[in-house]
Design a protein that fits this description.
heterodimer, A: 113 residues, mainly beta, five-stranded mixed beta sheet, 9 strands, 46% strand, B: 116 residues, seven-stranded mixed beta sheet, four-stranded antiparallel beta sheet
Chain lengths: 113, 116
Amino acid sequence: DAKTTQPPSMDCAEGRAANLPCNHSTISGNEYVYWYRQIHSQGPQYIIHGLKNNETNEMASLIITEDRKSSTLILPHATLRDTAVYYCIVRVENTGTASKLTFGTGTRLQVTL
Amino acid sequence: DTEVTQTPKHLVMGMTNKKSLKCEQHMGHRAMYWYKQKAKKPPELMFVYSYEKLSINESVPSRFSPECPNSSLLNLHLHALQPEDSALYLCASSHRGDRGSNQPQHFGDGTRLSIL
């Protein structure tokens, strides 16, 4: 699986959009970009994933560049409860077997008043 | 609340004890996973079960013994652990993605294990 690079930490004011970048310059054509977050004392929580098109769900939006070498997770209106470590993971398409997630060091997002 | 339930939430054991961690899900997932997470580090995969059969072992020491008795349960048997095995042990499950679609993993909140 391709390696990802994320800033170690970011701050965001409550109510503002949080834009979390991820670099995955060695991504292959069959690899998806996944985002998870881990709130303190909890297990990781799935947020969103995509292959090449931008994706949106009730939690966030995922913007993937045209060359797929980087992506941005957008939390449109951050709240204090969004304070967590955010992991960007690249994973090969699953074709019938259980595959693993390889977590990087992630970005620690601190949402402040 | 998480759909993957792990028990116990906390466990303290001596190096000579034998204990088990349990994980349960009722989402019909046929892939289940054990991860280990040290403090301030990302989770690291230990084992993967697919249709109740061990499919990935990430070179985990034999003092950790996984078991998948049925499609809803996953156990991790512990014996003769070392202090450096103190960590958060996370269980996850997912659909296997038999139709080629990627399926996200759902995690429990883990068992925090301390080895004395």
